[in-house]
Amino acid sequence: MLTTDISPENSGHRYLPKTTSFSPNQVLLPLTAKVNSKDCLEIGGCDLTTLVKQFGSPLYILDEETLRTACRQYRDSFKSYYSGESQVIYASKAWSCLAVCRIIDSEGLGFDVVSGGELYTNLKAGVNSDRI
Fold first, then answer.
1. Do 46 and 94 fall within a single domain?
2. Rounded to the nearest 5°, which phi and psi values hold at 130?
3. Is the domain of 51 the same as that of 69?
4. pLDDT of 87-114, one tens digit each?
């Protein structure tokens, strides 16, 4: 068991932004980031200390709520501010895995693919080929 002094410099609060912006593109941490009752950083209801103990570090963490919010903000902004036809496109090279592709597809975005692997992943995730 790890024990750490809970002084201000060791508190999970040091990672939280000092802003009230709810845009996922304005802060480094996901929208669900908070400090839990153990004074540890939590994302999407998952204690990061526990995740690191279980999976090791470095560890990539994706918050579904933040991803979905960003997709909706981009999609809805085009609907609101552009009178023509539009399609928001996700660059698959950013992160192409089945879960990410399924989430982005469910939010109505299209996909930019540049490799056979990205195409395979999108198709395997169930993305309709006319949105690729």
1. no
2. -80, 0
3. no
4. 999 999 999 999 999 999 999 999 999 9
